[in-house]
Amino acid sequence: MTNDQIQTLADIQRMALISVPGQTGQQTRHELNTFTDGGAWSAVGVYDSSNAPLYYSRVSIEADGTEMPKPGDPDSPCTLSEQHTQLAEWIAANRQKVAA
C-alpha cells in the first residue's frame, strides 16, 4: 500500500466518523480489513436508524497497491479516490437542513 493510499484511507475514516453523522444524522461504518499477503479492503456503509443501508461501497487493494472494485459489483468504485469522492458526494446530497 502506498502513502497516498494510506492518506486517502485516513480521509475516508475522518468523513465516516465525523462528517456523515455530523452533517447527515446517519450512522456509518468504515471497515478496513488487512490480509497476510499485504492486501486489504476498505468498506464504507451508511445506515438509517433502523439499520437499513443507504450507501455502501467496497474497494480492494492488492499487496502491490493495485485497486479494484468489489468483485461482482460493477457499480462499486474502482479506487480509494473514487470511494472518497462518492462518499463526499453522498454527504453533500444528504446534508440535514439547519434551521435559521
Main sheet, how many strands, which sense, barrel? Answer: 4 strands, antiparallel
What is the H/E string? HEEEEH
Tell me what portion of residues adopts beta-strand conformation.
Answer: 25-35%
| Mean pLDDT value | 89
Distance between the termini: 45 Å
Structural class comes to: alpha+beta
Helix content: 25-40%
Compute the CA-based radius of gyration. Answer: 14 Å
**How are the strands of the largest sheet arranged?**
1-2-3-4
Number of helices: 2
Runs with pLDDT <50, length 5+?
Answer: none
Oligomeric description of these chains: single chain
Estimate the global geometry from the Cα principal axes. globular
Task: Outline the structure in words.
The chain is α+β, with helices and mostly antiparallel strands. Helix content is 36%, strand content 28%. It contains 2 helices and 4 strands. The protein has a 4-stranded antiparallel β-sheet, with helices on one face. The longest helix has 22 residues, at 3-24.
